[in-house]
Design a protein that fits this description.
The complex is a heterodimer of chains A (731) and B (463). Chain A has 731 residues and is mainly α. Chain A contains 35 helices and 8 strands. In chain A, the strands form 4 sheets. Chain A has a two-stranded antiparallel ribbon. In chain A, strands 3-4 form a two-stranded antiparallel sheet. A 7-stranded mixed β-sheet of chain B has the order 5-6-1-7-8-4-9, with helices on both faces. A two-stranded antiparallel ribbon of chain B has the order 2-3. The chains are: A mainly alpha (731), B alpha/beta (463).
Chain lengths: 731, 463
Amino acid sequence: MPQTLQTSAEQTYSVSSPVVRDRFWRGSILPAGKRLAAVLLGTWFLAPADATASQNHAPTFTGDISPILDSYCYDCHGFGISKGGLTLDAFDSETALNDPELWLKVLKKTRAGLMPPVDEFQPSASEVETLSGWIKTQVFRSDPDNPDPGKVTLRRLNQIEYRNTIWDLTGVNNDTALEFPADDTGEGFDNLGEVLNISPMLLEKYFDAAQDIMGDVMASKGLGGLAPPGLGPLPTDDEGREIYTRILLENFASKAFRRPVNPSTLARLVHLAGEFSAKPGVIDETGIAQSLVAILASPRFIFREELPLPAGPGEPFPLIDEYSLATRLSYYFWSTTPDAELTALARDGRLRENLDAQVTRMLASPRSGQFVKNFVGQWLHSRDIRTVTINDFDVFLRDYAPPEVMIARQTLRELEVIPAYERTPEQIRLGDEARRISTNAVDQARQRRVRFTNALRQSMQQETEMHFAHILREDRSVLELLDSDYAFLDERLATHYGIPGVVGNEMRKVMLPADSPRGGILTQGTILATTSNPTRTSPVKRGVFILDNILGTPPAPPPPDITSLEDVANAGDISRMTLRETLALHRAEPLCSSCHDSMDPLGLALENFNAMGQWRDQEQSVPIDASGQLITGETFQTISELKQILVNHHRQEFYFCVSEKLLIYALGRSLHYYDTATLDRMVRLLEDTGGSLASLVKEVVRTAPFQRMRSPSPIQTVQANPGINPNHPTP
Amino acid sequence: MNTSNHQPDHRKASRINRRHFLKGVGTCLALPALSSLGANRLLAAPVEKRLAVTATGAPLRTAFITFPNGAIPRSWAPAGGMLDFALNETMQPLSALRDQIQIMGGLDHSNATAGLDGAGDHARGNSVFLTGVRLNKSATDVRAGVSIDQAIAHRIKHLTRLPSLELTCAEERRAGACDSGYACAYQHNISWRSATTPMTPENNPRKVFERLFGTGEHGARAANYQRRLATRRSVLDFVLDDARTMHRGLDAVDQAKLEQYLTGVRDVEMRIQNAESLGANVDPAVTTPNGVPETHREHLAIMFDMMLLAFQTDTTRVATMMMAYDGDNRPHAEIGVTDGHHQLSHHLNNEERIAKVALIDRWYVEQFAGFLTRLRTTEDVDGKSLLHNSMIVYGSGNADGNRHTHDNLPIILAGGGGGQLTPGRNLNFGSAPATNLFLSMADKMGARDMERLGDSTGRLVGV
């Protein structure tokens, strides 16, 4: 195959298979003039006689990929058709052909089995392999051994990290949730450098917090509380005071900055202490405290500065230095600043060689509860259960009120709009009767109803966190997040779920009855409630949640100029329909069905669980039908069957999804095409270990993006002084 | 340092603080007498290039207040002409203030429409409203534009202790992605200092009050405030120096982040300078609010009080407030609506739902009317009312929430603009960019050098 693709920007890359030529000849497809001309002048005549890929040379688009796409893709994404805005047979330039974001989409869709659609001809495993191989090697140009580590934008501490860090440094419990404005999030996480901003107000608050924190320290334990062991009290002589100040500030600043403070900064801090002492030049505690305030207001504390080691020969991307590594590890597992052990290893340059042991130690520490809480809290939304708005009474009525009550309530609503003095005697009689039925039922319901209390919400949050922590700590399969024969419950939550035999307020592992629909996160109160509206479930939101967070195949947002439901059926019809019927109507529109076919069945499968996460057999007196068919073809009758389908047929998508979420959280940045090699490695590990969550969580720290960085350009960084010991006073 | 506890108790402190508030404080916060607020200083101040002042020399204020999810069009639009109009159902709470408002029909936000960006009308409804720009659709690469309040504040920032005030009564943020692939920053901000720096709003009235007037009891606040400024000043040189050293080692992307820090530091410097040039801090004779109230109504009331106090004391002349973010799905049980607002706003032409949404629309107007009433009954330094000396936009980034339209947006312009506005009118501009209105307002604030804002095409004639 001649390298015909090395042509001018005017060149259009096009298909060259016999089928296409045939179609052109027949005139059934009329490409744009320019494209046709390019086809005629370009690849057309140069198409190789044998288009089959040889195993021995690098695959090419024209020789190897185009024929595969022709067989399976071009009917919708070629020949002038661009379904979903995607065209795979005409590229204006080599740059367009090699657009990594475009091919990343192709890679993900084919990998998840979403493309080609299930009712179309499916490529063979080797064809898929050829395509993905071409994308990875020729488009991404990724070297699996030396992947681009990407760019982590300079990250400030978020609310939680700031609070934990201050606690570790000073012992002050600074309520950042109250003091600071909420952090912005991106990709579902609040620790991404790209989206964490500092507004002028926040900067002001950083200054004031530094002052308040040091005020607390001085009031509670005094400066001595921050001094390194063995420093003793502030000496009385001037020279002694200066040495004391230097030692204390060097120690504290190095901890706060997460690397040794450089000598010039230290000199300025010591000077500042003198300047703000009562008698200038004669350092006192107030002056030192002022320098400590300055340390906590410094950008080196607020931001996590990362520095590279010198790149070795043939190393395209340098390792981050060990102080940076200690910091990454610490905020990943503990959401706080490195402890003395990590810092000491980094100082001695021995952290990397002790990495496994340190990771094991960090995960074993109770501090790793922060990882569970913050990662799971955001990935699986369990953090939101505390605040989600649920009107328990309305939810209850929807499921349990008999029809006459609902009719009575409807009558009351309709009468409400008629002023009392305009009502006919008949309306008054109907109103009184309806009120009687309604009040009666409401009274009865009130006695039986479940209240969606804070205590219940808390149990739910713990259930999700403990489920994840159990899998992590007992080295179990991540698939148990999808389906398990156990759950973490206390009496309150078990009663709520209708599971007998759990007594007491303590959350514990409970083996579920064999026929229980529970087990796994999908049937946990956290997810069921946080994906609901205040009065009812939302199958669409639940479906989107699963696509986003379990299968990793988020649906495209609804297109503009969408046909509204009102245009498809009249309002009266819609109001009489069940949710399932309304959604079916929706899917009758081709534009809607392309996405709703994938999300609705997943969400409707959970309809047996109301907005509070309780089991129900009917809604508004209509029996619930939870059956469905996934977009990938599998059919199911119950949620338990769906869980099995996810575990058995969608394991790989789930593995990719977990890996992606974890990598985003660990790195603090969004993912890009160049992370494919890293994700492949993580998924391979899951496959090899039977889905070991613990292995995956540990593996992250060994990956290139965690260990390395792009060389900062163009300026050389300021070298930290290696001679200064952050943990011990200088002699 | 902390061998006993391995991490701070995140729930403990915050729960105490969240629960610890005075019920109903918002509606009964007594305002200080005028004489305590330095009226003489204000009128004696030189009228510098007529920046943000009225003809009498009193301060001219402007505020932008947003409500969520648009408004039911048929209940919003008044009937009748420019002067002989009748308020519709949604605006009934403004009946007594009919002569203080202008209903601004026919203003659009073309950049809030889908365009090539697809879904995400609520994210756009928030961050396009005051910027008029097309937002970069990304979950992490945030790029909007400078908002009108910040553009004005930038030009008058030397006149008051605080350049601008950003408030919100939005619900706590939730985990997970925000609207349709837009970064959450777009959803939770309306005010933008620059394309990449949102002016994060404050939701806690106590924090707002302390930021405006200082911590502690009445009588001690001015001194506390001065102490704050002194401490801030004491670390300025050090952190600036530190930031500059750090800056040199960073690449362009990281430098931009650090630049946000430096911008904040420069603002702190400016506040210190302004405090020196403007004299002692005002200390209103009111109790410091005690946290976020339990109900949305109380929250709005006390935040409006904060804005009023900030205006009355001339602590700032520019403010924004999100009554809730566009896309808000809170129920409004106190008016009998237990379904979520956003969920209802897609009403499927169901009359019962439409009626409920209209009720919510009206409820928001009622809270706004309460604020206007307070402004009207508060006397300004020149003897006019605060409302007379203000220009206050009330609006939403969506017009019809059901269909996500962004033309003929529901917008009210309240206040007399110090005599520059002619309230009591029902106007229709056909189809003009809402940003044209904002430029006209900037002119009236004395900030006449703005060439354009977002999609503006000129000034709005006849405001």
